[in-house]
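Tokens in:
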């Protein structure tokens, strides 16, 4: 349930994936790990993230911002976080459209792109308006 297929290099036939949560602070140059949980082959990322945030909250005084890397860019996670009290930032996967937008910008220029899409779940669909800032 936890072993993902991997290219068979040096005899490795599978690998584990972990969701790790760390404290990031501008006053301290390194990340401080708090929690790392194995991820099953079939899992709900939004539910796993919410569970981890629930475990971390009692350990720290407050969570001012939750930062995710590009692998967490998902409509379901954004909907889950939009319905919570957490402020969040999810990096957008690199693609040709984003690359051309960045290349066309002048130094110091700011740009905002809004993406509209609907997440369909068992409850009525909800609009999410993720925003890309650069």
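Residues out:
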């Amino acid at each position: 349930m936890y072993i993902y297929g991997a290219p068979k290099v040096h005899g490795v036939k599978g690998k584990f994936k972990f969701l790790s949560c760390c404290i990031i602070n501008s006053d301290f140059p390194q990340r401080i790990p708090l929690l790392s949980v194995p991820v099953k082959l079939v899992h709900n990322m939004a539910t796993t993230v919410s569970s981890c945030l629930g475990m971390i909250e009692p350990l720290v005084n407050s969570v001012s911002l939750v930062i995710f890397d590009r692998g967490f860019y998902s409509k379901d996670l954004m909907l889950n976080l939009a319905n919570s009290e957490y402020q969040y930032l999810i990096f957008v996967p690199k693609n040709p459209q984003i690359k051309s937008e960045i290349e066309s910008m002048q130094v110091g220029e700011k740009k905002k792109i809004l993406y509209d899409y609907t997440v369909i779940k068992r409850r009525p669909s909800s609009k999410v308006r993720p925003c890309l800032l650069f």
